[in-house]
């Protein structure tokens, strides 16, 4: 059931990205181009996500345990550190240059193009490299 719930959540996320047009990197780049031909579409997508998350968390935290786990898993580290800031900066630079982040890139796979393929190769290489530099704890 846990895997099925994950697949259904991923499917819903991918459909939302496709319906909202966020699989089109030109929309994301248009949103980031505040000094040029600005496209505000992403604001509405992000606003919808914030509202959904706000309501969802209020409902989830009323439960004693999650549906498919014995306890909630929350991050314990709360400080800002170099690897976190560096990773966030690399993510932002890659997002701004390509118009893709991992979710929309995977949702865009049916319309695979050379820029998308290059992004996916770079994303997988970065993931692989990060695992080799410092394995997860």
Radius of gyration: 17 Å
**What's the helix count?**
6
Distance between the termini: 26 Å
Order of helices and strands, N to C? HHHHHH
What are the segments in which pLDDT stays under 50 over at least 5 consecutive residues?
Answer: none
Beta-strand residue fraction: under 5%
Counting DSSP E segments of at least 2 residues, the number of strands comes to 0
Keywords: Membrane, Transmembrane, Transmembrane helix
InterPro entries: DUF6691 (IPR046513)
Transmembrane segments: 42-60, 80-100, 112-130
Protein name: Sulphur transport domain-containing protein
Keywords, separated by commas or semicolons:
137 residues, mainly alpha, 6 helices, 0% strand
Tell me what the structure shows.
The chain is mostly helical. The chain has one domain (2-133). Helix content is 66%, strand content 0%. The chain has six helices and no strands. The two termini are 26 Å apart. The mean pLDDT is 89. The chain crosses the membrane at residues 42-60, 80-100, 112-130. Keywords: Membrane, Transmembrane, Transmembrane helix. It comes from Chromohalobacter marismortui. This is Sulphur transport domain-containing protein.
Provide a short characterization of the protein structure:
The chain has helices at 2-20, 25-32, 41-60, 82-98, 102-107, 114-133. The protein has 137 residues and is mostly helical.
């Amino acid at each position: 059931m846990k895997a099925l719930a994950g697949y259904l959540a991923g499917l819903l996320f991918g459909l939302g990205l496709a319906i909202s047009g966020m699989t089109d990197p030109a929309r994301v780049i248009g949103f980031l181009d505040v000094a040029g031909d600005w496209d505000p579409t992403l604001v509405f997508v992000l606003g919808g996500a914030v509202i959904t998350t706000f309501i969802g968390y209020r409902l989830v935290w009323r439960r004693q345990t999650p549906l498919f786990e014995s306890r909630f898993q929350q991050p314990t580290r709360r400080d800002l550190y170099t690897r976190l800031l560096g990773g966030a900066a690399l993510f932002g630079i890659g997002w701004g240059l390509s118009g893709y982040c991992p979710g929309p890139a995977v949702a865009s796979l049916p319309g695979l193009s050379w820029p998308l393929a290059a992004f996916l190769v770079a994303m997988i290489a970065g993931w692989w490299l990060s695992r080799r530099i410092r394995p997860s704890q």
